Amino acid sequence: MRLTPGAGRDIDLDAVDLLDLDLFTSGDPHLIWDAMREKAPLHHQTLPDGREFWSVTRYDDVCRVLGDHREFTSERGTVITHLGQDDVAAGVLLTSTDPPRHTEVRRPIAPKLTARAVKSWEDGIRRAVIRFLEPALDGAPFDLGEQVQRLPAIVTGPLLGIPEKDWDELVQLTSMVMAPSDPHFKLGSEAATLAISHHELVDYVTQWVKRRRSDGADKENGSLLDHLMSVRAGDAPLTDEEIALDGYSILLGANITTPYTISGTVQALIDHPEQYAKAAADLSLVPNLVEEGLRWTSSACNFMRYAVRDVEIAGGTVPAGGAVVAWIGSANRDASRFPDPHTFDITRDGAKRQVAFGFGPHFCIGAPLARMTLRVFFEELLQRFSSIEVVGETQHLRSIFIAGMTHFPVVGHKRM
Questions:
Q1: Nearest 10 degrees: CA dihedral of 374, 380, 384, 388?
Q2: Is residue 5 part of a domain?
Q3: pTM for the structure as a whole
Q4: Which mean pLDDT values do the consecutive 10-residue runs of the chain (416 residues) have?
Q5: Torsions phi, psi of 404, nearest 5?
Q6: Count of domains in the chain?
């Protein structure tokens, strides 16, 4: 998916297919989102099989859909590729559960992932990032798009209590969940890929929990998954099914978006060498570079909800039961919130208003850890390389939900 839109042109919004995989693999959705924000802030599409959905693209409307569970529920599904099939894990899987149950489960986990809590992990994360960058120091081509997919596992594996021998398998499985049509991850049909990856991930967490119970795990002072075993929602502990599904959700969140944020932001820095030089000369700009990178890449580019009742929004009405897709990638380019939105600017005032981590009750619980990982990565990158250049053809992920690159061959020029 292009992160910088091409030249403007007239777009027939009635003919646009927002579920066209080619649009997100090799197309230019930003031009379409620009047109939708201006001309059709509530866009309706009916698929050939009769399924239909509404889209919101403006920042305020996206925040409203994601922020108000009384109007827009997550308990029928949150991913557009599941449109028309209610989530069988609704009310159990954390991402498909509304408050108050969602709050009861999330509240005990959140203290483990605050900015203050994750600060103690920074040194370990920095060592992991330094090891990750070492192969690129000799000036040989380095496929950042492929290699960076493993970085979140290197960083979060020890925090989750996942042994290193399992990292590669879990990275593959989580990628299969989020991009089941991509040739790098597809096994047979898209449906088969989803079924296999879902089953294997849930089974992995289930078996992990059984082993930890038999080992007498320290649930309070152990890993994040250990802590999940001690969580009580309401008056009762989580069932093993809830632990397995919420562990599955945590694994997805830990592994999916950070790699594509990194590679997309590196691409933006290559395309804007003056921004690279500015950040390298003043590392105090890196936190804002991270926020601008999150806004720019919007790796999780949409989330879905269902209208609880007839809802008036964006100048139209979504009927009760209607599926609504909130386009994160569009909201983060809304000129009413981000002036000159298609310019990558690491000094942008207000970049932290980006909604790449979502908004409302389902705001990403791991955002502090992701922010720190991104900050550490770019601090180390900028200190080691005077510049970076692309040395081969990039290949984009074939996914409607996740925007990113699977291949991004680069060469880093080591600082002298």
A1: 0
A2: no
A3: 0.95
A4: 76 94 92 96 97 98 98 94 86 89 90 92 94 93 94 87 91 91 91 92 90 71 81 83 86 87 97 97 98 97 97 98 98 98 97 97 94 97 97 94 94 92
A5: 175, -175
A6: 1
